[in-house]
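Shapes recur. Our protein:

. . .
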Amino acid sequence: MQAIKIRYCVTFMEYSLQPFQESVATKDFKLHARHSRRGTKLDLIFTLVGPLGNLELNTAKIPDSLRGHRGQNLWKHTAFEIFLGSPQSPHYHEWNFSPSTCEWDYFYFNAYREKNEMASLGSGGLVRPPQLSVESKTIESSSLQMRIYIDLSFSEEVLWTLLSKQKLLIGLNAVLEHRLGDSSLWAIKHASPKADFHNAQTWTCEI
């Protein structure tokens, strides 16, 4: 039997994220994201530069007891978000990551905003729970970096897409919760009259 190999992609691609609406609150922030893939290992880095004191953000050292735990409603506060899908399928995946607590959350969708509750919990045999390693580091008072590792073999569907060399896309996004004013929504590309990270047209990064 001939072994099936997954194409490796090791080059880091870097993107600049833009707020859906420019405002006084967003003008002093810069947000960049980088990604690379080695086989089934996806490596992502978010770098946020700006006056972190203007955000609802905990920059203190994160206790080991909290690092890497699954959280809830992370998207309601400052968070980095990743969407993963393929043009060949309506199914897609969403991860949220908190730079304040290093918590993560995961959702599986059968179609646009049609969440599969059972699969999102990693039960039912549809999707195995993702294997993650999350790091968060405040380089200095005006810069924060978060590195995320995802093993794409968590999903048989995603694994098959890689094996069959079909296109696999990710959307890299962020929510910044400002101390004064509303939260701002950041993406590489905005493609709707309203900010919508679930819109597959905003998933511009091919892995």
Q: What stands out?
A: The chain has one domain: 15-206. Residues 15-206 form a domain with the Immunoglobulin-like fold (CATH 2.60.40).
